[in-house]
C-alpha cells in the first residue's frame, strides 16, 4: 500500500494534527517508510514461537484463573470509617 499526500492529509485530519501543505510529501514518505517496516515484519515466520515477556529467559508464574472474593473482606473493611453488613457504608448523597 502506498500513501500519497491526499491520504496523509486525511490521516492528519483524523488525528487532529495540523500539517502544512508543504510538509505533506514528507509525512506521506514517513508513512510509506513505516508501512515498509510493517511489511518486513509480516514476512517473518513466527509460527510456534512463544511471545516474549522479557529479554532475559524467565517463566511467568501462572495460576488457575478462577473468580473468588479474595477471602479478605475483614482486612479490606478493617480501616473503613463505617462498615455495615460486610460493605462500606457511605452517606447518602442523592435525595
Question: What do the pLDDT scores average to?
Answer: 89
Outline? flat
Helical fraction equals 25-40%
Strand order of the largest sheet: 1-2
Strand content range: under 5%
Give the strand tally: 2
Order of helices and strands: HHHEE
Protein name: Aspartyl/glutamyl-tRNA(Asn/Gln) amidotransferase subunit C
Subunit structure: Heterotrimer of A, B and C subunits.
GO biological process, one term: regulation of translational fidelity
Organism: Thalassovita taeanensis
Task: Describe the fold and architecture.
The protein is mainly α and 95 residues long. It has a domain at 5-42. 36% of the residues lie in helices and 4% in strands. A two-stranded antiparallel sheet has the order 1-2. The chain is flat, with a radius of gyration of 27 Å.
Amino acid at each position: 500500500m502506498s500513501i500519497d499526500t491526499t491520504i496523509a492529509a486525511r490521516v492528519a485530519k483524523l488525528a487532529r494534527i495540523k500539517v502544512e501543505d508543504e510538509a505533506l510529501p514528507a509525512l506521506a514518505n514517513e508513512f510509506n517508510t513505516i508501512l515498509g517496516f510493517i511489511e518486513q515484519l509480516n514476512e517473518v515466520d513466527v509460527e510456534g514461537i512463544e511471545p516474549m515477556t522479557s529479554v532475559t529467559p524467565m517463566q511467568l508464574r501462572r495460576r488457575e484463573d478462577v473468580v473468588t472474593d479474595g477471602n479478605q473482606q475483614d482486612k479490606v473493611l478493617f480501616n473503613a470509617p463505617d462498615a455495615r453488613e460486610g460493605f462500606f457504608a457511605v452517606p447518602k448523597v442523592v435525595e
